[in-house]
Amino acid sequence: MNLLFIVIGLVLLIVGGNWLLKSAVGFSLRLEIPKIVIGMTVVSFATSAPELIVSLKSALQGHPDLAVGNVIGSNIANLGLVLGITVLLSDIRVNTSFFKTDWPIMMLSSVLLYVFIVVDGSLGVYEGVILFALLVVFLAYLLKFQKVAVVDEMPEDDEELPLWSALLYLLIGGVALWGGSELLIEGAVGLAEEFGVSQRVIGVSVVSVGTSIPELSASIIAVLRKEKAISIGNLLGSNIFNILAVLGLTAIVHPIQIHDLGLIENDIYWMLGVSLLILPLSFMYRKRVFGKFEGGLLLAIYVLFIYMMLG
SS3 for 260? Predict the structure, then answer.
């Protein structure tokens, strides 16, 4: 039953996130907001909605390890699983923005999170404000200086909707996200108790993979459609949003006290390690190209991570 709750919850989160995204883009186009602004604000927040809802509700319901584990696990999954599989299917060329903005900001966010949670084992309101403020500064910088850094992976999905249709997608998407998060959290907590593992382990493995499925499906669909607009920067951007927006907002609404020290003593180092590895991989084998060698290595690292977590 717990596994069924998790599966149904993930399906509702993915469908709800897609409907919310469709509604958000529809509203933005109707309001004639520039597409670059839509991509960096509306779309980014909408695609991070599953992580945000799950982490926020986990913290509010007294499951802080699930909240933090979800974000750390999602960041590892985005680079190890999603990027690994994507570049195995098709080579991706690294843009200049990767070196100038995407990777440095992702590492800064990751190190900042590490410092905040290692010092006292918690993420407080002030720390949440700092994280979210950094996100605002980052978006302002991108809008002013690095507009080419954001790539629209699915431009054909951008359509202006009738007002009633946009409102309906918004309502259904919001309800699906709420219901999906309830089922996912209940199933994850139940599964942890059933198998005698910590909520942190379930959060870092099962829940994080589930909330990373939208990124994986979008990347694979883009590859199959031969769209070379896929950007590593978009995956790094998702990691940045997970830390600065998801954990930042969660900490502001409800301070997070970490109970399972495995998050601090193990998981955060995996996240930092994989994030750090992305830079040398961008020029180690073939300069500025992520291909099968890099994809295989990243996927192997992710499989090892999951094996050690669940082993």
Answer: coil
List CB contacts of 187: < 8 A, sequence separation 6 or more: 1, 2, 3, 4, 5, 6, 9
Query: 127 — phi, psi (to 5°)?
Result: -70, -35
Do residues 166 and 27 lie in contact, with contact meaning Cβ atoms separated by under 8 Å? yes
Quick: pLDDT tens for 122-136: 999 999 999 999 999
CA distances from 58 to 5, 69, 113, 183, 295 (A): 15, 10, 18, 11, 32
R_g of the chain, CA atoms, integer Å = 18
CA 113, 115, 118: angle at the middle one, nearest 5? 100
Query: What pLDDT digit, counting tens, does each position of 220-268 carry?
Result: 766 676 654 455 777 888 899 999 999 999 999 999 999 999 999 999 9
Q: What is the identity of the amino acid at 199?
A: Q
Residue 224: how many CB atoms within 10 A of its CB? 10
Question: What pTM, to 2 d.p., does this model score?
Answer: 0.84
How long a stretch of residues is the chain? Answer: 311
Q: Give the containing element (helix H, strand E) for 41.
A: none
Convert the pLDDT of each residue in 87-144 to its tens digit.
898 888 887 778 888 899 999 999 999 999 999 999 999 999 999 999 999 888 877 7
Q: Write down the domain spans for the chain.
A: 2-310
Q: CB–CB of 252/121 below 8 Å?
A: no
CATH of domain 2-310: 1.20.1420.30
